[in-house]
Amino acid sequence: MKHHVNFFIVMPGLKSWLAVATAIGICLGASLSTPSTKDIKLLKENCPLTDVLFPVLPCGTFRLEEATIDDMQAAMNNGTLTSVQLVGCYVLRTFQTHLYINSLLQYNPDALSIAAQMDAERAAAKIRGPLHGIPFTVKDNIATKDQLETTAGSWALLGSIVPRDAHVVAKLREAGAVLFGKAILSEWADMRSNNYSEGYSARGGQCRSAYNLTVNPGGSSSGSAVGVAANAIAFSLGTETDGSVINPAMRNNIVGLKPTVGLTSRAGVIPESEHQDTVGTFGRTVRDAVYALDAIYGIDQRDEYTLAQEGKTPEDGYASYLTTKTALKDAVFGIPWNSFWRYADPEQVRQLTALIKLIEDAGATIINGTEITDHERIVSPYGWDWDYGTNRGYPNESEYTVVKVDFYNNIKTYLSELENASIRSLEDIVQFNYDNDATEGGRPWPLGHPAFYSGQDGFLASLATKGIKDETYYQALNFTQSSTRNGIDDALTYKGKKISGLLVPPDVAQAPQIAAQAGYPMITLPAGIHSASGMGIGLGIMQTAYGEPELVKWGSAIEDLQKSTNTPYKRSLPQWRDCLKRNIPVYTVYEGSD
After folding, report:
1. Catalytic residue among 83, 103, 209, 220
2. Where is each Amidase domain found (predicted)?
């Protein structure tokens, strides 16, 4: 029997959150099961009881757990659910999980009023599209012109006023989506430090994955991915310069779709590098991630990079490319084994090759050895390294050479449009961090903050460039872009014909790194769990510029195959490992059992 209970007996620290959440739950018809004495004992020992501590409560009569956007729309259309209810239920879920995973930085006080407006439009038979009335979050480096802050997780920008919504936020509002709040991120999207606790920001604290609360949750779009994975939001937006969509999506066992640079506008997004920054989407399914992409892509006069997409995007949107497993009989996938796969851990290789065998059995052709041209030179054998060029003696072949200069200039442009802000340059940010060392970790640990172990060495490296675009900068820009683009395009050609995509293990971070330098799109699909850490394993697909239709087609076909079989190599729910631990920094070890 289920009934409403005072759940404080499990975790006294939850009082302030659950007092509100319980009241909301009662109003929404949700209920919590009563934990037994045995349950509580086991919980204190090793936190295995996810059904006791973290049940995804029904939203009235609607099953919220793993609900898709289509499920939500069907329930709202038949009158068993409203957008206001949906927002309330996600508030309840956020309160229920917040002190553990800390995925939401700030709740939007306008969310319920926006939801009520969407419900009124629906009642008047005005439905804007598949995202009408659907709650979403955005990473805290994406501007919103409302009661929310936009700070990149730093206290330095608190109280600053942005001139307008980011273009992607404006597009989602037009699509009828309901902005639920801002998701936590790694501060300044990982630009500030090179040795840090992923998912940590001074303003937000440590975001933790529901799969394992002690392990790197992935970043820098940490809260976006964690919230979606924990069923605390329907979908989310993140940003990527190098891996920051693909990595957290993979680690949290969800779909991450990172578009071609310039497909989604960066106007209103706190920048890192104009050459690599892109806004991507997170969903528990390919379809959900694609619905979000369809709403945000397009030309924006405030971002000149978006002009290049003219004539290269589908008239009917990317959702028109969603398909089923039957399409796999026409697929030809390449395996760049020496480029990436040889760096994957043994458990990951076993699971992913088993999934690829399933794809092959469904009719796809698999070609091994479709390598990135010159991979011996451009792919680091030592893991992710965005200064790999410099570290092997060639700063004019380094991604970091470009990013350091870009950030110095791009952040100054962004800051120039803010009102009520004293921070106007990178110099100002660096000084703010020194002046607030205890919270912002301006100096390396132990003088600063343990989450920012190397202090703000990333900022200092950028500061040293003064934004000067010298010969080394232009050589590095040309090398990183041309070598990676040629490398991927060559690998996508087999015997004179274009293949459907490159299958890669995104946990081998060099794979999304090469795609990032090229500005090319990539998708990651849930593909299993590491037995030792409990964290997600992903299967990535790489494509050429504006190759999103192929990613959507084959990603949805593989997902349909996964769901229609009993394979374990697909999305599974979080197990909340080590849910009582609060280590900072989070552990960076991320390996299989052997």
Report:
1. 220
2. 96-380
Angle between helices 69-77 and 83-101 (to 10 degrees): 140
Res 8: pLDDT: 26
422 labelled catalytic: no
193 carries an active-site annotation: no
Catalytic member of 139, 171, 553, 570: 139
Pair of tokens at residue 151: 């700070």
> Do residues 282 and 249 make contact, with C-beta atoms less than 8 angstroms apart?
yes
Give the three-class secondary structure for 530. coil
Catalytic one of 244, 339, 380, 500: 244
pTM for the model stands at 0.93
User: Per the structure block, which two tokens stand in for 119?
Assistant: 């419900």
255-258 and 493-494 beta bridge pairing: unpaired
CA neighbor of 133 nearest in space, from 123, 142, 143, 141? 123
d(CA 536, CA 252): 5
Amino acid at site 517: Q
DSSP structure class, residue 281: E
* 189 Cβ contact partners less than 8 Å away, ≥ 6 residues apart: 139, 141, 152, 220, 239, 241, 244, 270, 272
Instruction: Please state, in angstroms and rounded to a whole number, the distance separating the CA atoms of residues 146 and 283.
Output: 25
Is 244 known to be catalytic?
A: yes
Tens digit of each residue's pLDDT (9 = 90 or more) over 495-530:
999 999 999 999 999 999 999 999 999 999 999 999
